[in-house]
Amino acid sequence: MIKKLYLTITIIFIHLSAYSQNASVEQSNVGIQVGLLGTWIHFESKLTQSITFRTEFGFDFDYSNSEGSILTPSISIEPRWYYNLKTRNNRFKNIEGNSGNFFSIRTTFTPDWFVISKDESASVYPRVIIAPTWGMRRLLSKKIMSEIGFGVGYYKEYYSKYDTEQSEQGWFPNLYLRIGFNIKRTPPSGYKQYL
């Protein structure tokens, strides 16, 4: 009886150990996200078992006193550390689609290429934003996911292309909620979904 119990415990331990070793971010992930402040397309690629590098292109909603609501292009790069994938995996929680919690440093550039606005004379100043962020990403179905994040961001807006001293800078709360659609996902090699 005791031998059978030890054998059962050993098999369970080996199974859980092998299962936790498979905990990894996906090789790549391409998707579209929509939030209250814009629409974006992203590409996220694996660097290590828990770190990804994300690039994003989209359109951010902005507001100007003179022009009202405007839509501006934005480009972002963001290394992400998904710090709890092994814990979620060991508890048999879904980690597909990089479903987990993460820390990141998001850097966004808003160029002055063009704006979408009712006012044809509307324009925007180039802006750089750096925002350390804590976030949570969850796969709601095979194709639909949600993402929330918050942190504190620092921005610098340049009023002149030729004189970087003419600028405005400051801190702001970085808070977002997005719903997205996965266009293409490449799971990590050897990953088995048990749920």
Sum up the structure in keywords:
195 residues; mainly beta; 8-stranded antiparallel β-barrel; elongated
Structure description:
The structure is a single chain. It contains 2 helices and 8 strands, in the order H-E-E-E-E-H-E-E-E-E. With 195 residues, it is mainly beta. An 8-stranded antiparallel β-barrel has the order 1-2-3-4-5-6-7-8. Strand 6 and strand 7 form a beta hairpin. Mean pLDDT is 82; it is low at 13-20.
Summary?
The chain has 2 helices and 8 strands; from the N terminus they run αββββαββββ.
Helix content: 10-25%
What would the average pLDDT be, to the nearest integer?
Answer: 82
Rounded to the nearest angstrom, the distance between the terminal CA atoms is: 30 Å
Question: What's the number of extended β-strand segments?
Answer: 8
Briefly note the structural class of the backbone. Answer: mainly beta
Low-confidence segments, given as residue ranges, are 13-20
- The proportion of strand residues reads over 45%
Number of helices: 2
For the largest sheet, list the strands in their spatial order: 1-2-3-4-5-6-7-8
